[in-house]
């Protein structure tokens, strides 16, 4: 049963792997958006592409909305949770584009490093998680797995 008890185990089973990912990353994106709202950067380097279109606090709401959508989608059955993954992909994809633009414009030379970070740790991981099947992989030696078991 583990340290979570029956209620925690039931919640974990209800969420599954995909739901747990949506809940955790959704909470993270919500927190990331709130930090831009509650403790804004005076001069956000590398984000000129965004701040020329709208103030940073407006973009913070993108993170907040994506986080809430991802967290709410955690309770949706696998296969129907696409909206949560799409929402969680949106802010880091936008940030990646802004950092690439900042690097190529010469405004923010470190932009490519930040773009690579967002592309791998946010976008890449979210794309990977969206492709993870919900069912458990059979243990080695399980009949039907192609081994004599």
């Amino acid at each position: 049963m583990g340290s979570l008890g029956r209620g925690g185990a039931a919640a974990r089973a209800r969420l599954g792997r995909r739901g747990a990912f949506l809940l955790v990353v959704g909470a993270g994106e919500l927190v990331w958006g709130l930090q831009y709202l509650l403790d804004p950067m005076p001069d956000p380097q590398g984000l000129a592409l965004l701040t020329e279109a709208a103030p940073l606090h407006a973009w913070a709401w993108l993170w907040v909305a994506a986080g809430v959508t991802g967290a709410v989608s955690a309770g949706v059955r696998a296969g129907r949770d696409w909206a949560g993954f799409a929402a969680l992909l949106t802010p880091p994809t936008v940030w990646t584009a802004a950092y690439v633009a900042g690097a190529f414009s010469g405004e923010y030379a470190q932009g490519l490093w930040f773009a690579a970070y967002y592309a791998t740790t946010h976008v890449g991981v979210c794309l990977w998680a969206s492709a993870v099947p919900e069912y458990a992989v059979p243990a080695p030696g399980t009949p039907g797995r192609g081994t004599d078991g």
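Helices lie at 5-38, 48-51, 56-73, 82-105, 111-131. Residues 14-131 form one domain.
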